Structures are given as structure tokens and as C-alpha cells.
Amino acid sequence: MAPIGKIYSYPNNPRVYKALIAAKYNGLEIAEAKDFQTGVTNTTPAFLEKFPLGKVPAFEGADGFTLYESNAIAYYVASYKKDTKLLGKDKHEGAKIQQYVFFADNEISPAAATWTFPILGWIPFNKANQAKAVEDVKHVLSVLDKILLRRTFLVGETVTLADIIVFTALLNLYKLVLEPEVRKPYVNVNRWFLTLAHQPEFIAVVGEVKLCEKAAEPKKPEEKAKEEKKPKEEKKPKEEKKPKEEKPKKEEKPKPEADDDDEDEKPAEKKAPNALDLLPPSKFNLENWKRFYSNNDTRPTAINYFWDNFDKEGFSIWKADYKYNDELTLVFMSSNLVGGFFQRLEAARKYAFGTLLVLGENNNSAISGYFVFRGQEVPPMVIDAPDYESYDFKKVDSDDAAVRKDFEDFLAWDVPIGGKKVADGKTFK
Ligand SMILES: N[C@@H](CCC(=O)N[C@@H](CS)C(=O)NCC(=O)O)C(=O)O
């Protein structure tokens, strides 16, 4: 039969599986949108006209009907067949199915993402968030385990959209982190999950599901490294507390290590002048540069401005290269990594400018760029960012002609760099 429509997405997106499995149960065909390129196709005006969020999956029916949000697409496909069993037999079952759709999105997916995305290299690892996510997942599994004690499927006596959607929400957990010891207590969930995984309609879409044997590790345990190396006095200032007796004077110099074992007694560290603010004044004004760069053509105007005003005594230029390029996948995910890094550099905004580019293409890319820092060292607020450990920072010689040319290319984004085209980029300013 002719496909009822096509879905735009990158390959193997579990959100797409929901509609594809539903289609198998209903005997329907859905095509894959040909030549879809993440970060390219979904940013074109034609795509955004139909799917304004620019996100995938996105569905376009053979009749011109358009739809985004994977649960809505799965629902549409499930409802496409009149006598489908996927939506329950009455309004109670229908409502229960909705309950599980929201349950999957609100109770499972956020925790599953926090646990598995750092493993997939999509977001940076954060120890505290991960610990919380593990607990949340275990809680959800124990809830499901009770529900499934006397049930083969979540709603009614046959597979419904509830099973399909909860299954896909759990899929990466079962594949990546729920190693035997961890999943052992949830016998009923395991049985239910494997029952679904062995249904021909699931196999046709998901393939053979290999359950996790040993939990995959997050790729970059930056947080741990950061905690180990962070010197005591660099601890983030606690919420400002009024000292019990006398307020310290504004100008008072910070005491080096005194009173260390009673932090509550410390005058607020926030008052300490930042070492970077005590550097001799510089003729190069970073704020002016950022504004000039934003408002003028990069070549030659902004670049000439930079070299005319740059002060190598008061500032330094650093090359930054991502350490784990071989683990990068889709360009938009790499851009998200850079965006996240920049967000966590907020405290350094006054002292830093940066340009980081994603070079190459999907599944063959590198993140690289330059920073301009106040002073001759990497500012402590940059070192404090969890992502700092994921980059090699090397100070460069701003008088070297080759360095200057490379730096200019990273400012301009208009020529391939190291043989790789500029796929995307972000500026920290
Ligand atoms: N709630 C949406 C989430 C869609 C979503 O976040 N899609 C991601 C990929 S899985 C995306 O297209 N991101 C591209 C972007 O944010 O630009 C759904 O279930 O369809």
C-alpha cells in the first residue's frame, strides 16, 4: 500500500519509533523523508513554514496534513485505522492510554535523558543531576513494576499506544545503563519490556534489542575532575550572610585562608575584588570589540579593528580544541554542546570573548575555536565551568602570521578551516 505520509528525522530516533510501531500494528506504511539533513533541512523556510519549531520528528501526510510532536504523530497513525486496538476499547482505556503517554513524557523521559545523554555525548555529565536521575528512574520502574505485577500490557489485554510509548521512553535505558544487577528488582517491567521487544511489529522497527550487560559510562567526568582540582579558596561564595558583629568594610582585602573551618563566619567573599579587575588598565576594551564585531563586516572591518586595538600585554589569545571529536555525531548536537558551554561561562563574560565552530559534517566533525581572555591566563571562571575539561586550551602567539590568519578565519566563518567546512558556530560575547 502507498505510504500515508512521510516522517522527517535523523535515523534511529526513538521518538519516530512510536509512529512506526503503531503503523506496523495498523498495517500502514510511513515513508522516511528523503535527504533529510539535521540542522539543514529543518532550518529551511519551507520546513519552518510547515513545522515552525524546526524540530523532528515531523510528519507530512500524503494528503498534505502536517503534524509535529512525536506523541501526536503516533496518535494520528494509531487512529488512522478505524477498528484499531491501539487506542483502547472504551473511554476508560482511552484515558488510561493518555495517562501513560504523559507519564512517559513527564516521569520517564527527562530522567532517562539526564542519565543517558551524557553517555551519548549530547550533554555534559553532571554528577548530582545523574545521581538524581538514577533515583528517579528507579522510582518510576518500581511504580511500573507494581502495575505490571498482574498485567501483561499496560492497558487492556493487547498492545496499545501506552505500551509503545512507554517502551520507547525506556529503550535507551535498557540498552545503555540498566545492567543486570540494576534491572533485577523490576521483574515485571523486564518481562513486559521483553515481551514487547519480541513482537514482530516492534522488531520490524527497532530491530533486536540487546539488553545492557554493563552500564555505559558518561564520556567526560568533568565534574569529578573539577571537584578534585578546585582549590579551597575558589569555592563559590555562599549566599551572603550578615556577619554577626561588624560588617567588613567594602575596601577590605580578602583574608587568604583564615577562618577556613567555619565558613559561616567568613565575611562574604563576594566583596573580594576580582584579580582580573586589578590588572593595569588596557587600551583594548573588550566590550567595544564585542559590539564592533557584532555590528560590522568581519572582513576586513572588524578584523582590522581587532588588530589595531588588541593589547597583548593586557589580553591573551587561546586556541580551544574539543578533546572528544571522534564522539561527536550530529552537527546540531555539537552546536548544542557549544551553546551549553557558553551558557555556563556567564561569569566570565566580562573577561572573555570566544568563537567556537563546528567544522565538518554530521558524524565527521570537530569543535574548535579561539578565546580572547583578559590577562595572560585562562580566567578562573572559565576553569570553573564543567565543560572546561573537555577542551584543550593553548595560548597562541598573536604576532605569528599563521596564527593571525587562523584566528581571522575563525572570526569570519567564511572559508573552510583545516579542510573542513564551517557547519555551524557560536560566538561568546
Ligand atoms: N517533544 C518533541 C521533542 C522534539 C525534539 O526535541 N526533537 C529534537 C531531536 S530529538 C530536535 O529536533 N532538536 C532540534 C532543535 O532543537 O533544533 C517530540 O516528542 O517530538
UniProtKB/TrEMBL annotation:
GO terms for cellular component: cytoplasm; nucleus. Residues 216-279 are annotated as: Disordered. Keywords: Elongation factor, Protein biosynthesis. This is EF1G-domain-containing protein. Residues 272-429 form the EF-1-gamma C-terminal domain. Pfam families: EF1G, GST_C, GST_N. InterPro entries: EF-GSTs, EF1B_G_C, EF1B_G_C_sf, Glutathione-S-Trfase_C-like, Glutathione-S-Trfase_C_sf, Glutathione_S-Trfase, Glutathione_S-Trfase_N, GST_C. Residues 3-85 form the GST N-terminal domain. GO terms for molecular function: translation elongation factor activity. PROSITE patterns: EF1G_C (PS50040), GST_CTER (PS50405), GST_NTER (PS50404). The keyword Transcription regulation does not apply. It comes from the Eukaryota. Residues 216-257 have a biased composition (Basic and acidic residues). Residues 90-222 form the GST C-terminal domain.
